[in-house]
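Researcher: Sequence recovery benchmark, item below. Answer with residues only.
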């Protein structure tokens, strides 16, 4: 168990977590946590002992230069930081890690133990997966929750996925067993442009975080980065007729299966965001 020393008393803290690796296509999910750490000025809180959970021949440590002179070893691990959410009385605990190589159940017990010690009640888990999604359309985000109230408020569909899972799936199960209100958000990253970063997918997840927590988040340069990313992919597709044809096929498939009511829900959600942002600015 990780010992927490000199931790300030937190106000109704919410946990937001993302893990690099299998759960993080295009680094879209970890990109959200990095963005929040920066704009909210998060301060370090704790780190798990990497010897307990990582195989260093699989996830290797790296050598870094400090002040251009001293070399330092940076070990792969999972770190926690804390910040105050602007416009809210609540604190936030940000978890940014690498999917562990071993002892997943103990890993999740450690994290859930920290959440309970900090008196957290809400956990938001972020992930991203590769999918047959066209880069020219809004990034699909799948949301699921173990909490009935959250499922009703966000109008979520019950999770029906069956198959292999990553550390997010195991952690969500551990959180549910600890009676923590948990929601997982998964962005679909086009598989033909899977190299990080994926600012458009990061932006889509961030907007869902706003909805789940009913807050407004400063987006910084993310919207412009998302437009530049899409423009860059368009140019690449124009240079390859097979890729361009494949993208058109994905667009037609997406447009044909998009239900009118789903589009209406998306418009309503965007309008609610607009009203919330205008209220915050006044």
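Model:
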């Amino acid at each position: 168990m990780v010992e927490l020393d000199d931790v300030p008393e937190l106000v109704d803290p919410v946990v937001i977590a993302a893990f690099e690796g299998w759960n993080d296509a295009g680094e879209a999910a970890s990109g959200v946590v990095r963005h929040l750490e920066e704009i909210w000025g998060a301060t370090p809180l704790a780190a798990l002992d990497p010897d307990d959970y990582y195989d260093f021949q699989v996830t290797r440590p790296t050598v870094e230069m400090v002040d251009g002179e001293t070399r330092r070893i940076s070990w792969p691990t999972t770190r926690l930081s804390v910040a105050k959410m602007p416009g809210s009385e609540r604190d936030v605990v940000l978890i940014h890690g690498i999917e562990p190589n071993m002892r997943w159940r103990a890993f999740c017990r450690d994290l859930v133990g920290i959440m309970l010690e900090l008196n957290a009640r809400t956990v938001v888990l972020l992930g991203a997966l590769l999918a047959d999604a066209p880069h020219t359309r809004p990034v699909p985000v799948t949301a699921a929750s173990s909490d009935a109230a959250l499922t009703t408020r966000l109008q979520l569909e019950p999770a029906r996925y069956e198959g292999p899972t990553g550390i997010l799936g195991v952690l969500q199960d551990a959180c549910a067993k600890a009676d923590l209100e948990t929601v997982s958000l998964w962005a679909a990253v086009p598989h033909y442009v899977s190299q990080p970063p994926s600012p458009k997918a990061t932006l889509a997840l961030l907007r869902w975080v706003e909805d789940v927590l009913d807050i407004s988040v400063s987006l910084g340069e993310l919207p412009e980065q998302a437009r530049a990313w899409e423009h860059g992919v368009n140019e690449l597709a124009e240079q390859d007729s097979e890729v361009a044809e494949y993208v058109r096929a994905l667009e037609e498939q997406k447009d044909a299966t998009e239900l009118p009511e789903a589009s209406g829900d998306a418009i309503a959600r965007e309008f609610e965001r607009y009203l919330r942002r205008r209220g915050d600015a006044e």
